[in-house]
Design goal:
463 residues, mainly alpha, Rossmann fold, Glutamyl-tRNA Synthetase, domain 3, three-stranded parallel beta sheet, three-stranded antiparallel beta sheet, 48% helix, elongated, binds glutamic acid
Protein backbone atom coordinates (compact mmCIF):
# COMPACT_ATOMS: atom_id res chain seq x y z
CA UNK A 1 0.00 0.00 0.00
CA UNK A 2 1.27 3.45 -0.89
CA UNK A 3 1.56 5.66 2.18
CA UNK A 4 2.50 9.30 1.57
CA UNK A 5 2.66 12.19 3.96
CA UNK A 6 2.65 15.90 4.24
CA UNK A 7 4.99 17.13 6.95
CA UNK A 8 4.74 20.88 7.30
CA UNK A 9 6.79 22.88 9.74
CA UNK A 10 4.24 25.13 11.35
CA UNK A 11 4.51 28.67 10.16
CA UNK A 12 0.96 29.67 11.06
CA UNK A 13 -0.45 29.11 7.62
CA UNK A 14 -0.38 26.59 4.80
CA UNK A 15 2.16 27.68 2.20
CA UNK A 16 1.18 27.46 -1.44
CA UNK A 17 4.35 25.48 -2.26
CA UNK A 18 3.57 23.11 0.60
CA UNK A 19 0.07 22.66 -0.69
CA UNK A 20 1.43 21.63 -4.06
CA UNK A 21 3.54 18.81 -2.61
CA UNK A 22 0.64 17.92 -0.32
CA UNK A 23 -1.62 17.66 -3.38
CA UNK A 24 0.88 15.47 -5.22
CA UNK A 25 1.19 13.24 -2.16
CA UNK A 26 -2.58 13.12 -1.69
CA UNK A 27 -3.22 12.24 -5.34
CA UNK A 28 -0.61 9.55 -5.44
CA UNK A 29 -1.83 7.86 -2.27
CA UNK A 30 -5.50 8.04 -3.21
CA UNK A 31 -4.89 6.93 -6.77
CA UNK A 32 -3.30 3.80 -5.37
CA UNK A 33 -5.91 3.20 -2.73
CA UNK A 34 -3.30 4.12 -0.14
CA UNK A 35 -3.04 6.56 2.72
CA UNK A 36 -2.11 10.20 2.94
CA UNK A 37 -1.09 11.19 6.45
CA UNK A 38 -0.26 14.44 8.12
CA UNK A 39 2.63 15.16 10.46
CA UNK A 40 3.21 18.50 12.08
CA UNK A 41 6.93 19.13 12.48
CA UNK A 42 6.67 21.29 15.54
CA UNK A 43 9.89 20.51 17.35
CA UNK A 44 10.49 24.23 17.62
CA UNK A 45 8.64 24.48 20.91
CA UNK A 46 8.27 28.25 20.75
CA UNK A 47 5.51 27.77 18.18
CA UNK A 48 1.98 26.79 18.97
CA UNK A 49 1.42 23.50 17.24
CA UNK A 50 -2.33 23.33 17.60
CA UNK A 51 -2.80 26.68 15.93
CA UNK A 52 -0.50 25.68 13.12
CA UNK A 53 -2.35 22.42 12.65
CA UNK A 54 -5.69 24.21 12.71
CA UNK A 55 -4.58 26.61 9.99
CA UNK A 56 -3.54 23.69 7.83
CA UNK A 57 -6.74 21.78 8.50
CA UNK A 58 -8.81 24.84 7.67
CA UNK A 59 -7.08 25.09 4.30
CA UNK A 60 -7.44 21.36 3.66
CA UNK A 61 -11.14 21.56 4.50
CA UNK A 62 -11.61 24.47 2.13
CA UNK A 63 -9.91 22.53 -0.65
CA UNK A 64 -11.59 19.23 0.11
CA UNK A 65 -8.32 17.41 0.77
CA UNK A 66 -8.65 14.83 3.46
CA UNK A 67 -5.83 13.24 5.35
CA UNK A 68 -6.05 9.76 6.82
CA UNK A 69 -5.94 8.92 10.48
CA UNK A 70 -4.73 10.99 13.38
CA UNK A 71 -2.32 13.86 12.95
CA UNK A 72 1.15 13.12 14.27
CA UNK A 73 2.83 15.89 16.25
CA UNK A 74 6.57 15.64 16.56
CA UNK A 75 6.43 17.60 19.79
CA UNK A 76 4.66 14.63 21.41
CA UNK A 77 7.17 12.00 20.39
CA UNK A 78 10.24 12.73 22.48
CA UNK A 79 10.14 9.33 24.17
CA UNK A 80 10.14 7.56 20.85
CA UNK A 81 13.12 9.53 19.60
CA UNK A 82 15.00 8.93 22.86
CA UNK A 83 14.43 5.22 22.57
CA UNK A 84 15.98 5.07 19.13
CA UNK A 85 18.88 7.25 20.15
CA UNK A 86 19.54 4.83 23.05
CA UNK A 87 19.37 1.96 20.63
CA UNK A 88 22.00 3.51 18.37
CA UNK A 89 24.25 4.24 21.35
CA UNK A 90 23.94 0.66 22.59
CA UNK A 91 24.76 -0.68 19.17
CA UNK A 92 27.73 1.70 18.85
CA UNK A 93 26.17 3.26 15.80
CA UNK A 94 26.12 6.56 17.59
CA UNK A 95 28.34 8.04 20.27
CA UNK A 96 28.66 10.83 22.73
CA UNK A 97 30.85 13.66 21.59
CA UNK A 98 32.34 15.91 24.27
CA UNK A 99 33.93 18.40 22.00
CA UNK A 100 33.44 21.89 23.39
CA UNK A 101 32.17 24.78 21.33
CA UNK A 102 35.61 26.39 21.50
CA UNK A 103 37.30 23.26 20.28
CA UNK A 104 34.85 22.96 17.43
CA UNK A 105 35.33 26.58 16.46
CA UNK A 106 39.09 26.09 16.47
CA UNK A 107 38.78 23.01 14.30
CA UNK A 108 36.65 24.98 11.86
CA UNK A 109 39.16 27.77 11.65
CA UNK A 110 42.05 25.43 10.98
CA UNK A 111 40.08 23.66 8.29
CA UNK A 112 39.16 26.95 6.69
CA UNK A 113 42.74 28.16 6.81
CA UNK A 114 43.79 24.94 5.07
CA UNK A 115 40.98 25.40 2.55
CA UNK A 116 39.44 22.11 3.62
CA UNK A 117 35.78 21.30 3.92
CA UNK A 118 34.68 22.15 7.44
CA UNK A 119 33.48 19.06 9.23
CA UNK A 120 33.66 17.29 12.49
CA UNK A 121 36.93 15.38 12.76
CA UNK A 122 35.61 12.22 14.38
CA UNK A 123 37.54 12.77 17.61
CA UNK A 124 35.07 10.85 19.78
CA UNK A 125 33.92 8.39 17.14
CA UNK A 126 35.96 5.53 18.47
CA UNK A 127 36.96 7.05 21.74
CA UNK A 128 37.29 4.55 24.54
CA UNK A 129 39.35 6.52 27.00
CA UNK A 130 38.00 8.45 29.92
CA UNK A 131 35.82 11.25 28.67
CA UNK A 132 36.18 14.67 30.28
CA UNK A 133 34.23 14.97 33.51
CA UNK A 134 31.14 17.18 33.76
CA UNK A 135 31.24 18.19 30.17
CA UNK A 136 28.13 18.45 28.10
CA UNK A 137 27.91 16.13 25.18
CA UNK A 138 25.97 15.82 21.97
CA UNK A 139 25.18 12.54 20.28
CA UNK A 140 26.55 11.92 16.83
CA UNK A 141 25.69 9.18 14.42
CA UNK A 142 28.44 7.23 12.71
CA UNK A 143 28.26 8.21 9.07
CA UNK A 144 30.07 6.15 6.47
CA UNK A 145 33.63 7.37 6.00
CA UNK A 146 33.87 6.38 2.38
CA UNK A 147 31.73 5.20 -0.48
CA UNK A 148 28.56 6.73 -1.87
CA UNK A 149 25.09 7.31 -0.57
CA UNK A 150 22.74 7.03 -3.50
CA UNK A 151 19.41 8.78 -3.41
CA UNK A 152 17.19 6.98 -5.87
CA UNK A 153 14.96 9.83 -6.80
CA UNK A 154 11.82 9.30 -8.82
CA UNK A 155 12.06 12.75 -10.39
CA UNK A 156 15.77 13.37 -10.72
CA UNK A 157 17.14 9.86 -11.12
CA UNK A 158 20.00 8.47 -9.02
CA UNK A 159 21.95 11.11 -7.15
CA UNK A 160 25.27 10.12 -5.66
CA UNK A 161 26.52 11.76 -2.53
CA UNK A 162 30.15 10.96 -1.78
CA UNK A 163 30.59 10.20 1.89
CA UNK A 164 33.96 11.87 2.12
CA UNK A 165 32.78 15.06 0.40
CA UNK A 166 29.43 15.51 1.98
CA UNK A 167 28.96 13.64 5.16
CA UNK A 168 30.29 13.72 8.61
CA UNK A 169 29.08 12.33 11.89
CA UNK A 170 26.20 14.69 12.27
CA UNK A 171 24.51 15.41 15.57
CA UNK A 172 21.32 13.47 16.26
CA UNK A 173 20.76 14.78 19.79
CA UNK A 174 21.81 18.14 21.12
CA UNK A 175 23.36 18.82 24.50
CA UNK A 176 19.90 19.28 26.04
CA UNK A 177 18.87 15.90 24.68
CA UNK A 178 16.64 17.30 21.94
CA UNK A 179 16.77 15.18 18.80
CA UNK A 180 17.70 16.93 15.55
CA UNK A 181 15.68 17.49 12.42
CA UNK A 182 17.01 14.83 10.06
CA UNK A 183 16.91 12.20 12.77
CA UNK A 184 13.27 12.74 13.70
CA UNK A 185 12.11 12.98 10.09
CA UNK A 186 13.66 9.62 9.27
CA UNK A 187 12.37 7.96 12.44
CA UNK A 188 8.87 9.30 11.90
CA UNK A 189 8.68 8.45 8.23
CA UNK A 190 9.78 4.92 9.04
CA UNK A 191 7.45 4.41 12.02
CA UNK A 192 4.52 5.96 10.20
CA UNK A 193 5.03 3.49 7.39
CA UNK A 194 5.68 6.17 4.78
CA UNK A 195 7.01 4.44 1.71
CA UNK A 196 6.82 7.26 -0.83
CA UNK A 197 8.09 10.70 0.10
CA UNK A 198 7.15 13.55 -2.22
CA UNK A 199 8.67 16.85 -1.09
CA UNK A 200 10.38 19.99 -2.30
CA UNK A 201 13.89 19.63 -3.68
CA UNK A 202 15.12 22.09 -1.08
CA UNK A 203 15.21 18.95 1.08
CA UNK A 204 17.46 16.99 -1.24
CA UNK A 205 20.60 17.71 0.75
CA UNK A 206 18.91 16.29 3.86
CA UNK A 207 18.10 13.01 2.20
CA UNK A 208 21.52 11.31 2.44
CA UNK A 209 21.56 12.10 6.16
CA UNK A 210 18.12 10.63 6.57
CA UNK A 211 19.24 7.55 4.66
CA UNK A 212 22.10 7.11 7.14
CA UNK A 213 19.52 7.13 9.95
CA UNK A 214 17.31 4.62 8.15
CA UNK A 215 20.25 2.33 7.61
CA UNK A 216 21.55 2.62 11.14
CA UNK A 217 18.13 1.73 12.53
CA UNK A 218 17.52 -1.02 9.99
CA UNK A 219 14.48 0.72 8.52
CA UNK A 220 13.44 0.38 4.94
CA UNK A 221 14.28 3.41 2.82
CA UNK A 222 11.24 4.98 1.14
CA UNK A 223 11.04 6.03 -2.45
CA UNK A 224 11.81 9.72 -2.83
CA UNK A 225 10.50 12.29 -5.27
CA UNK A 226 12.08 15.69 -4.94
CA UNK A 227 9.94 18.29 -6.63
CA UNK A 228 11.65 21.36 -8.15
CA UNK A 229 10.74 24.69 -6.63
CA UNK A 230 8.15 27.15 -7.88
CA UNK A 231 9.80 30.20 -9.42
CA UNK A 232 8.57 33.65 -10.33
CA UNK A 233 8.72 34.96 -13.89
CA UNK A 234 12.32 36.09 -13.30
CA UNK A 235 13.40 32.59 -12.42
CA UNK A 236 13.78 33.31 -8.71
CA UNK A 237 12.19 31.45 -5.84
CA UNK A 238 8.58 32.51 -5.37
CA UNK A 239 8.16 35.19 -2.75
CA UNK A 240 5.27 37.13 -1.30
CA UNK A 241 5.85 39.86 -3.86
CA UNK A 242 5.01 37.51 -6.72
CA UNK A 243 1.75 36.21 -5.32
CA UNK A 244 0.21 35.25 -2.04
CA UNK A 245 2.00 32.43 -0.26
CA UNK A 246 -0.77 31.75 2.27
CA UNK A 247 -3.29 29.33 0.78
CA UNK A 248 -6.22 30.93 2.59
CA UNK A 249 -5.40 34.27 0.97
CA UNK A 250 -6.49 32.64 -2.29
CA UNK A 251 -9.87 31.97 -0.78
CA UNK A 252 -10.09 35.57 0.34
CA UNK A 253 -9.21 36.77 -3.15
CA UNK A 254 -12.05 34.70 -4.57
CA UNK A 255 -10.37 31.72 -6.18
CA UNK A 256 -12.31 28.49 -6.26
CA UNK A 257 -10.76 25.36 -4.74
CA UNK A 258 -11.03 23.61 -8.12
CA UNK A 259 -9.09 26.37 -9.88
CA UNK A 260 -6.38 26.56 -7.24
CA UNK A 261 -5.84 22.79 -7.21
CA UNK A 262 -5.80 22.72 -11.01
CA UNK A 263 -3.30 25.58 -11.05
CA UNK A 264 -1.06 23.79 -8.55
CA UNK A 265 -1.16 20.38 -10.15
CA UNK A 266 0.13 21.95 -13.36
CA UNK A 267 2.95 23.71 -11.55
CA UNK A 268 5.55 21.06 -12.01
CA UNK A 269 3.50 18.23 -13.47
CA UNK A 270 2.07 17.78 -16.91
CA UNK A 271 0.04 15.37 -18.93
CA UNK A 272 0.55 16.16 -22.60
CA UNK A 273 -0.60 19.72 -23.08
CA UNK A 274 -3.82 19.35 -21.12
CA UNK A 275 -4.50 22.32 -18.86
CA UNK A 276 -7.86 21.58 -17.26
CA UNK A 277 -8.00 18.78 -14.72
CA UNK A 278 -10.88 18.00 -12.42
CA UNK A 279 -9.87 16.33 -9.19
CA UNK A 280 -11.14 13.01 -10.60
CA UNK A 281 -8.97 13.43 -13.65
CA UNK A 282 -5.99 14.30 -11.48
CA UNK A 283 -6.62 11.13 -9.53
CA UNK A 284 -6.76 9.16 -12.71
CA UNK A 285 -3.75 10.67 -14.44
CA UNK A 286 -1.30 11.88 -11.82
CA UNK A 287 1.93 10.01 -11.53
CA UNK A 288 4.95 11.46 -9.73
CA UNK A 289 7.24 10.04 -12.40
CA UNK A 290 5.85 12.75 -14.69
CA UNK A 291 6.87 15.56 -12.35
CA UNK A 292 9.00 18.01 -14.32
CA UNK A 293 12.71 18.07 -13.70
CA UNK A 294 12.99 21.82 -13.88
CA UNK A 295 11.43 24.56 -11.78
CA UNK A 296 7.94 25.67 -12.65
CA UNK A 297 6.87 29.25 -13.18
CA UNK A 298 4.10 30.86 -11.18
CA UNK A 299 1.78 32.75 -13.50
CA UNK A 300 -1.11 34.81 -12.16
CA UNK A 301 -2.81 35.10 -15.57
CA UNK A 302 -2.99 31.35 -15.79
CA UNK A 303 -4.57 31.16 -12.36
CA UNK A 304 -7.11 33.82 -13.32
CA UNK A 305 -7.85 32.04 -16.56
CA UNK A 306 -8.47 28.78 -14.71
CA UNK A 307 -10.61 30.53 -12.14
CA UNK A 308 -12.79 32.10 -14.85
CA UNK A 309 -13.07 28.70 -16.46
CA UNK A 310 -14.27 27.09 -13.26
CA UNK A 311 -16.66 29.92 -12.43
CA UNK A 312 -18.20 29.61 -15.90
CA UNK A 313 -18.51 25.88 -15.62
CA UNK A 314 -19.85 25.60 -12.10
CA UNK A 315 -23.56 24.94 -11.69
CA UNK A 316 -25.54 27.87 -10.36
CA UNK A 317 -26.52 26.09 -7.19
CA UNK A 318 -22.91 25.28 -6.40
CA UNK A 319 -21.86 28.77 -7.35
CA UNK A 320 -24.43 30.25 -5.00
CA UNK A 321 -22.86 28.20 -2.22
CA UNK A 322 -19.34 29.19 -3.18
CA UNK A 323 -20.37 32.84 -3.07
CA UNK A 324 -21.67 32.69 0.49
CA UNK A 325 -18.31 33.29 2.18
CA UNK A 326 -18.12 36.54 0.20
CA UNK A 327 -21.17 37.88 1.95
CA UNK A 328 -23.69 36.85 -0.65
CA UNK A 329 -26.68 34.78 0.37
CA UNK A 330 -28.71 34.02 -2.70
CA UNK A 331 -30.57 30.93 -1.67
CA UNK A 332 -33.98 32.54 -1.83
CA UNK A 333 -33.42 34.90 -4.73
CA UNK A 334 -35.99 33.83 -7.27
CA UNK A 335 -33.97 35.07 -10.24
CA UNK A 336 -30.75 33.45 -9.10
CA UNK A 337 -30.37 31.53 -12.35
CA UNK A 338 -30.57 34.59 -14.59
CA UNK A 339 -28.33 36.53 -12.27
CA UNK A 340 -25.58 33.93 -12.08
CA UNK A 341 -25.78 33.09 -15.78
CA UNK A 342 -25.44 36.75 -16.57
CA UNK A 343 -22.38 37.27 -14.39
CA UNK A 344 -20.53 33.98 -14.74
CA UNK A 345 -18.73 35.11 -17.85
CA UNK A 346 -17.85 38.47 -16.46
CA UNK A 347 -16.04 37.66 -13.23
CA UNK A 348 -12.49 36.44 -12.80
CA UNK A 349 -12.99 35.73 -9.11
CA UNK A 350 -15.82 34.88 -6.74
CA UNK A 351 -15.12 38.08 -4.88
CA UNK A 352 -15.54 40.08 -8.06
CA UNK A 353 -18.70 38.18 -8.79
CA UNK A 354 -20.13 38.92 -5.34
CA UNK A 355 -19.48 42.61 -5.94
CA UNK A 356 -21.19 42.45 -9.33
CA UNK A 357 -24.17 40.64 -7.85
CA UNK A 358 -24.53 43.21 -5.09
CA UNK A 359 -24.29 46.03 -7.57
CA UNK A 360 -27.35 44.60 -9.26
CA UNK A 361 -29.51 43.51 -6.37
CA UNK A 362 -28.99 46.57 -4.19
CA UNK A 363 -31.01 49.69 -4.98
CA UNK A 364 -28.48 52.41 -5.85
CA UNK A 365 -28.02 54.74 -2.91
CA UNK A 366 -26.42 57.38 -5.09
CA UNK A 367 -25.59 58.04 -8.73
CA UNK A 368 -22.20 58.39 -10.26
CA UNK A 369 -22.05 62.10 -11.04
CA UNK A 370 -20.22 61.89 -14.33
CA UNK A 371 -22.44 59.09 -15.57
CA UNK A 372 -25.61 60.94 -14.58
CA UNK A 373 -24.44 64.10 -16.28
CA UNK A 374 -23.75 62.21 -19.46
CA UNK A 375 -26.95 60.16 -19.37
CA UNK A 376 -29.55 62.69 -18.31
CA UNK A 377 -30.17 65.10 -21.16
CA UNK A 378 -33.17 67.00 -22.24
CA UNK A 379 -36.04 64.57 -22.71
CA UNK A 380 -34.49 61.82 -20.59
CA UNK A 381 -37.08 62.13 -17.83
CA UNK A 382 -39.90 61.93 -20.34
CA UNK A 383 -38.36 58.83 -21.91
CA UNK A 384 -37.93 57.16 -18.53
CA UNK A 385 -41.50 58.04 -17.63
CA UNK A 386 -42.77 56.49 -20.84
CA UNK A 387 -40.75 53.35 -20.21
CA UNK A 388 -41.93 53.15 -16.58
CA UNK A 389 -45.56 53.53 -17.64
CA UNK A 390 -45.27 50.74 -20.19
CA UNK A 391 -43.71 48.42 -17.67
CA UNK A 392 -46.37 49.06 -15.09
CA UNK A 393 -49.09 48.25 -17.63
CA UNK A 394 -47.69 44.75 -18.24
CA UNK A 395 -48.80 41.97 -15.95
CA UNK A 396 -46.33 39.33 -16.91
CA UNK A 397 -42.71 40.30 -17.11
CA UNK A 398 -40.21 37.62 -16.30
CA UNK A 399 -37.42 37.15 -18.76
CA UNK A 400 -34.80 39.52 -20.10
CA UNK A 401 -36.49 39.25 -23.49
CA UNK A 402 -39.77 40.58 -22.03
CA UNK A 403 -37.99 43.72 -20.88
CA UNK A 404 -36.08 43.94 -24.09
CA UNK A 405 -39.32 44.06 -26.09
CA UNK A 406 -40.59 46.95 -24.02
CA UNK A 407 -37.36 48.86 -24.50
CA UNK A 408 -37.74 48.33 -28.24
CA UNK A 409 -41.34 49.48 -28.21
CA UNK A 410 -40.42 52.69 -26.42
CA UNK A 411 -37.55 53.64 -28.71
CA UNK A 412 -39.65 52.83 -31.80
CA UNK A 413 -42.70 54.74 -30.66
CA UNK A 414 -40.68 57.76 -29.56
CA UNK A 415 -38.45 57.50 -32.60
CA UNK A 416 -35.25 57.78 -30.61
CA UNK A 417 -31.94 55.94 -30.65
CA UNK A 418 -31.46 53.12 -28.14
CA UNK A 419 -28.94 55.10 -26.13
CA UNK A 420 -31.45 57.81 -25.33
CA UNK A 421 -33.34 55.27 -23.25
CA UNK A 422 -30.45 52.96 -22.37
CA UNK A 423 -28.17 55.51 -20.78
CA UNK A 424 -30.55 57.12 -18.26
CA UNK A 425 -32.12 53.75 -17.59
CA UNK A 426 -28.71 52.27 -16.82
CA UNK A 427 -27.91 55.06 -14.38
CA UNK A 428 -31.36 54.69 -12.82
CA UNK A 429 -30.98 50.94 -12.36
CA UNK A 430 -27.31 50.65 -11.45
CA UNK A 431 -26.20 54.14 -10.45
CA UNK A 432 -23.41 54.09 -13.04
CA UNK A 433 -22.64 53.54 -16.69
CA UNK A 434 -21.15 50.06 -16.53
CA UNK A 435 -22.59 46.64 -15.79
CA UNK A 436 -24.39 43.83 -17.52
CA UNK A 437 -27.27 43.94 -20.01
CA UNK A 438 -30.20 46.03 -18.74
CA UNK A 439 -32.82 43.54 -19.83
CA UNK A 440 -31.12 40.95 -17.60
CA UNK A 441 -30.80 43.41 -14.74
CA UNK A 442 -34.54 44.17 -14.86
CA UNK A 443 -35.46 40.51 -15.12
CA UNK A 444 -33.33 39.85 -12.05
CA UNK A 445 -34.64 42.64 -9.86
CA UNK A 446 -38.23 42.30 -11.13
CA UNK A 447 -40.88 44.75 -12.19
CA UNK A 448 -41.57 46.49 -8.86
CA UNK A 449 -37.94 47.14 -8.10
CA UNK A 450 -37.37 48.34 -11.67
CA UNK A 451 -40.18 50.84 -11.28
CA UNK A 452 -38.91 51.95 -7.91
CA UNK A 453 -35.43 52.60 -9.28
CA UNK A 454 -36.82 54.53 -12.23
CA UNK A 455 -38.96 56.66 -9.91
CA UNK A 456 -35.99 57.31 -7.62
CA UNK A 457 -33.85 58.43 -10.51
CA UNK A 458 -36.53 60.68 -11.85
CA UNK A 459 -36.90 62.35 -8.47
CA UNK A 460 -33.17 62.74 -8.11
CA UNK A 461 -32.74 64.26 -11.56
CA UNK A 462 -35.76 66.56 -11.87
CA UNK A 463 -34.61 69.12 -9.35
N1 LIG B 1 8.93 20.11 7.59
C1 LIG B 1 9.55 20.30 6.32
C2 LIG B 1 9.12 21.59 5.68
O1 LIG B 1 8.05 22.09 6.01
C3 LIG B 1 9.24 19.17 5.36
C4 LIG B 1 9.93 17.93 5.73
C5 LIG B 1 9.86 16.86 4.71
O2 LIG B 1 9.00 16.91 3.82
O3 LIG B 1 10.66 15.94 4.80
O4 LIG B 1 9.81 22.12 4.85
Amino acid sequence: MVVTRFAPSPTGYLHIGGLRTALFSYLWAKKNGGKFVLRIEDTDKARNSQEAADAILEAFAWLGLEHDGEITYQSQRDDIYKKYIEQLLNESKAYKCYMSKEELAELRETQMANKERTKYNGKYRDFDGNHPEDLEYVIRIKAPLSGDIVVKDGVKGDINFKAEDILDDFVIARADGAPTYNFVVAVDDALMGINEVIRGDDHLSNTPKQIIVYEALGFEIPKFYHVPMIHNSEGKKLSKRDGATDVMAYKEMGYTPAALLNFLVRLGWSYGDQEIFSIDEMLELFNPKDINKSASIYNTEKLNWLNSHYIKNTSNSELAQLLEPYGLVLTSHDKKEILLDELKDRAKTLKEMAVLVNEIIETPASYDEKAAKKAFKEGSIEILNAFGAKISSHEELHLPIDYHHIMEEVVNEMEIGFGKLGQPLRVALLGKMTGPGLDSVMAIIGKDETMLRIANAITAHTL
